[in-house]
Amino acid sequence: MRNLVPVLLAFAVSAAYGQAPARTAAANEAPLAALPYTPGLDVTAMDKSADPCEDFYQYSCGGWIKNNPIPADQSAWSVYGKAAQDNQRFLWGILSALAAQQSGRNPAQQKIGDYFAACMDEQTVNQRGAAPLQEYLALIGGMAGKQDLPGVLARLHTDVANSMLFAFSSNQDLGDSAQVIAFAGNADAGLPDRDYYLKTDAKSKTIRVQYVDHIARSLELAGDTPAEARRAARAILRFETALAKASLSRVEQRDPYKMFHKTDLKGLQAMTPAFNWKDYLQAAGVAGVKRFNANEPAYLRALNQGLQQLSLADIKTYLRWHTTRAMSPFLSQAFVDENFAFYHKTLLGTPEQKPRWKRCVQLVDLQLGEALGQEFVSRAFSPELKEKTLHMTRQIEAAMEQDINSLTWMSEPTKAKAREKLHAVANKVGYPYSWRDYSAYGVKRDDFAGNVVRGTAFEVRRQLDKIGRPLDRSEWGMTPPTVNAYYNPQMNDINFPAGVLQPPLFDGNMDDAPNYGNTGGTIGHELIHGFDDEGRQFDAKGNLKDWWARQDAKAFKQRAQCIVDQYAQYTVVDDIKINSKLTLGEDAADLGGLILAWMAWKTEIADKVLENREGLTPEQRFFVGTAQWTCQSERPESLRLHAMTDPHSPGKYRINGVVVNMPEFAKAFACKPGQAMVKPKQKICRVW
What span, in angstroms and rounded, lies between the C-alpha atoms of 88 and 71? Predict the structure, then answer.
């Protein structure tokens, strides 16, 4: 996934919503093309006083960084982030118009218009206060004994968040990708990563103190006395710490074999005898499920121990906290402010909440994304743009096959399997072939929190209904307006939403060089993910299967270690280095993807006569084009968090760390041996 400013999944809803004064959208009802245009290669974003052979990132992005300070409502700011905000402004205009329109809307337009109107009705939201929360607090409070937990938890998983105590959903069987089975995984904890609970440095200890304070203040808002809330907060931290100790690290989770533990109901029950799975499945509406994947059995055993040891009151406290945490962004100002203060200001360093319109647009995209996506695509994505992207994709796939054929470190039998997988990759560009049906999702114009709950229930039910049914390989994991792209190893597909195929990321007004450097690099990046340290373990059909000859796997790991060693030397912030074992997949995809893009571009221009433009040769324009997608600034707090949780390296190293391994770059800029962007030939890293 070539995401520059990733969203923490555990806090996806919190990140998408907060509170700010309402604001009219009248001035923003304009087509996407009417928004300020930024070219795919922007010479004003460069710092030509910098030597490209010493710091290519500064040379390409120095002007952008200087002229684009981080907005007060952002933890980081980037070319990707600005493109996403431009898309949001465009969607804001569409949603505002639909919200104001009382007739002539189709059912999908009515839903997204009414949802947006309810979200923007700040006065009604504040008048309702904590009322939407009380139903669930009462449900928790009504538990007479631990035997009631499965039924209550099933309701909370359906309506509020399907990741309290444990996560329960569906996914492809890792051993048989054509089958969809149930998955029981780790809960989303209140802190972003298990290491936040376990590290003993002063900063981590301070954050845990702040987390306890945040829990206590939130529970006070929900009705606890200060003494009760403080006592409960300490108990919650102890329980979550015990679960964190039993959890795999993010690096360990990159090994799919460590996450593959297929079992039946009897086996799952044996892991957690203190929890009645039969009652839970009955209450969740999936009583007939027989096959499960237990992501982390050690976690489930630790959960079982906790359920045995905790009192009923402590279990209720945990559920009250996580229900309050999940719903806080949709309640009154006090709840939203408290949620923002910890999850955005403390953890990410963001000074101000996003304007309400941004958060409402994000929520519509989150819960009704394909209905909103239809409106986006009809206005901002043409068949010609789709065909251009597919043409580039086919060229990059041809380059990948050429690369595989030329490898000296891989045996012919493994090459044959690699080609088989490459030929099986499905290319999804722009939007789904069939749009999601939201008719079962009830949206009310005067019930914002209720809309969120019903949207959560709609998606949870949609996921659970997949269990035991034929796999739908046409489904997308991102919505069309999204400014991002991804590869799915079990689907064996690469996905490019319409939102990422807009200027400056893909610019039809530009020459091929920056477009191949930028979008071509993205396509290559996603394709390489099928062959990185994690993706290579899945076969052409998306099954977890070892198709590598032993000596080839050893050679791959040796080459990948070169990348690990290189990136481990880079500093993120203060004394924190890149966790290069965590970022290996993205770092390898950045490098391999750009090599493929270069090969495809050279094929595209083979019979063309190219001229220098804006003082840059075509080769230089290719490299500046790829660098400028990563131009970014990030707050120190955000850098610290992402160093622990994000599989992507910071933008600077996603460029300098790549070009230093490409002799083509050194030639393009006439760099000399000994300069920072030039490696000795024997030290150059390359896997693909």
Answer: 15
